[in-house]
C-alpha cells in the first residue's frame, strides 16, 4: 500500500482528534444528567443499528458474485432493494406514526435479521425476498429512530437545542467510528478468520438482536397521530397536504433528495473513478478514509450547531456549494491530466487528486446528516413525521434505481457532472429556505414586540 494512503488517513485522523480534544466550553452545551442518560441510551442503540447495517454493505455484491450471479442479475437485486424502499417506505412510515415508533424500531430489527438469514441461501428468489426485506428495513432505519428520538426528547421536556448534540454524536459514532470498526471487523471475519462472506451478515444479526433487546427493555412508546379514525390513505393525504402547503417542508424534501441522490450515486462511482483501468487500490482502507472524513464533518457540525450563529440554514449553503465543487474534480482531472489506457499497479496521480476531493465530499456528508436532522426536527410536523420523511425518499429511490439501471449507459464524467449540478441546485434551494425561515423569524419577533407593547394598554 502506498504511503499516500497512510498520509491521507493519518492526516485526517490527526485533524479529527485535534478538533475533538480542543473543544472548550464555547463549543459545548451545558445539559442535565437526565438528558445525558437519555442521549447515551439512544446512541448505544443507534450505533448497534448502524453496525448491523455497515457490516453488510461491503459484502452484499461480493456474496452474490460467489453464488455465481452476474452483474445484471446482481443489479436487479439492488434495484429490488431500492424499489422496495420506495414502494413500502411510505406505508411503514405511516404505520410508525400510527402504531408507534418504538414498535417500528423493533420491526426494523426483526426485518433486517430476516434479511440477513436469507443470505445463507443461494437461490435467487430467496435472495430477492431478502433484498425486499432489506429495503423495508432501510426505510425504517432512516425514519422510525429519528422520529422516536425527536418525540421522546420533546415529551421529556428537554431543550430544543440539545437535539443537535444527539444528532451530531449519532453521526460521529454511527456513520463514522462504527462504520470504520465494522469494516475492520468484517475484514477480520471474512479474510483473517476465513469464515466466508456470510459471516458479516450473521454478526449483523447479533448486533441487531442486542439493540432490539435494549429497545424493548428501556424505550417507551410514542406516536405521531394514533387516531383510530385515520386510515393510511388519510395519513398519506395529510402528509402530502403538509408538504404542498408549507414551502419550507417542500424545500427540505427537495434538498434532501438532491443531496442523498448524489451521495448514493457517488457510492457506485468512486471505485471506477479511482481505478479506471482496474488498478489495484485498497478499497477497505479508502472506505475507512471516507468514514474518517465523515467524522471530521460531523465534528465540525457539532461545533457549528453549538453556536447561535451561523444558523443551520445559513452554513448549509456553503456545504452544498463545496460538495458540488468537490465532485467536479474527476471532470477537471480528465481534461487537465491525459487519461491513460494502460493498467498500472496502483492509483494514478489523477486518482490521488480525486481521492482528496472525495474526502472533502465525505466531510460535507458528515456535516449534512446532523444538520438535515436538525432542520427536519424544526419544520416537519410531529403527527406525520415518519410519513413525510419517507415521502422524501420516494424521488431519491426513483433516482437511484434509474442510475443503477443506466450506470453503463453514460461516461463517468457525465454522471459526476449530473451529481454536481444536483448539489448546486440544492445550494440554491437552501438559500431560498434560509430566506423564508429568516422572514418567518422576523415576523414572529415583530408580533411578539407588538404584543409586548400592547400589554400596558390592556391593564
Automatic annotation (TrEMBL):
Record-given protein name: Molybdate-anion transporter
Superkingdom assignment: Eukaryota
Free-text function comment from the UniProt entry: Mediates high-affinity intracellular uptake of the rare oligo-element molybdenum.
Subcellular localization, as worded in the UniProt entry: Cell membrane
Keywords from the named record: Cell membrane, Ion transport, Membrane, Transmembrane, Transmembrane helix, Transport
Organism lineage string: Eukaryota, Viridiplantae, Streptophyta, Embryophyta, Tracheophyta
One example GO MF annotation: molybdate ion transmembrane transporter activity
Family annotation (Pfam families): MFS_5
Naturally occurring in which organism (per UniProt): Morus notabilis
Biological processes annotated in GO: monoatomic ion transport
Amino acid at each position: 500500500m502506498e504511503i499516500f494512503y497512510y498520509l491521507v488517513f493519518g492526516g485526517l485522523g490527526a485533524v479529527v482528534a485535534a478538533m475533538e480534544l480542543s473543544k472548550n466550553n464555547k463549543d459545548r452545551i451545558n445539559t442535565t444528567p437526565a438528558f445525558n442518560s437519555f442521549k447515551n441510551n439512544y446512541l448505544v442503540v443507534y450505533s448497534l443499528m448502524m453496525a448491523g447495517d455497515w457490516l453488510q454493505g461491503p459484502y452484499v455484491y461480493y456474496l452474490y458474485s460467489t453464488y455465481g450471479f452476474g452483474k445484471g442479475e446482481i443489479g436487479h437485486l439492488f434495484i429490488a432493494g431500492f424499489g422496495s424502499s420506495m414502494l413500502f417506505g411510505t406505508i411503514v412510515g405511516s404505520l410508525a406514526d400510527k402504531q408507534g415508533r418504538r414498535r417500528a424500531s423493533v420491526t426494523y430489527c426483526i426485518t433486517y435479521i430476516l434479511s440477513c438469514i436469507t443470505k445463507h441461501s443461494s437461490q435467487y428468489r430467496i435472495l430477492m425476498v431478502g433484498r425486499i426485506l432489506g429495503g423495508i428495513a432501510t426505510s425504517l432505519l432512516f425514519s422510525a429512530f429519528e422520529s422516536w428520538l425527536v418525540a421522546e426528547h420533546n415529551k421529556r421536556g428537554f431543550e430544543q437545542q440539545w437535539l443537535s448534540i444527539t444528532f451530531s454524536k449519532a453521526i460521529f459514532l454511527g456513520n463514522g467510528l462504527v462504520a470504520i470498526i465494522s469494516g475492520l471487523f468484517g475484514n477480520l471475519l471474512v479474510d483473517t478468520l476465513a469464515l466466508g462472506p456470510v459471516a458479516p451478515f450473521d454478526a449483523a444479526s447479533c448486533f441487531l438482536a442486542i439493540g432490539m433487546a435494549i429497545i424493548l427493555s428501556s424505550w417507551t412508546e410514542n406516536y405521531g397521530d394514533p387516531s383510530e379514525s385515520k386510515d393510511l390513505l388519510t395519513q398519506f393525504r395529510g402528509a402530502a397536504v403538509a408538504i404542498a402547503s408549507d414551502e419550507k417542508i417542500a424545500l427540505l424534501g427537495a434538498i434532501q433528495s438532491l443531496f442523498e441522490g448524489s451521495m448514493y450515486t457517488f457510492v457506485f462511482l468512486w471505485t471506477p473513478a479511482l481505478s479506471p483501468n482496474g488498478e489495484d487500490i485498497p478499497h477497505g482502507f479508502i472506505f475507512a478514509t471516507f468514514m474518517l472524513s465523515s467524522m471530521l464533518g460531523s465534528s465540525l457540525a457539532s461545533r457549528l450547531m453549538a453556536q447561535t450563529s451561523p444558523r443551520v440554514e445559513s452554513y448549509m449553503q456553503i456545504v452544498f456549494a463545496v460538495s458540488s465543487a468537490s465532485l467536479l474534480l474527476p471532470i477537471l482531472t480528465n481534461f487537465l491530466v491525459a487519461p491513460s489506457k494502460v493498467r498500472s499497479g496502483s492509483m494514478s496521480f489523477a486518482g490521488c487528486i480525486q481521492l482528496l476531493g472525495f474526502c472533502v465530499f465525505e466531510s460535507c456528508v458528515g456535516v449534512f446528516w446532523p444538520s438535515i436532522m436538525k432542520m427536519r426536527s424544526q419544520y416537519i410536523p410531529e403527527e406525520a413525521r415518519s410519513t413525510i420523511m419517507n415521502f422524501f425518499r420516494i424521488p431519491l429511490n426513483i433516482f437511484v434505481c434509474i442510475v443503477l439501471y443506466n450506470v453503463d449507459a453514460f461516461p463517468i464524467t457525465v454522471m459526476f457532472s449530473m451529481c454536481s449540478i444536483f448539489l448546486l441546485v440544492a445550494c440554491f434551494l437552501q438559500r431560498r429556505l434560509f430566506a423564508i425561515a429568516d422572514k418567518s423569524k422576523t415576523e414572529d419577533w415583530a408580533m411578539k414586540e407588538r404584543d409586548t407593547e400592547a400589554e400596558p394598554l390592556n391593564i
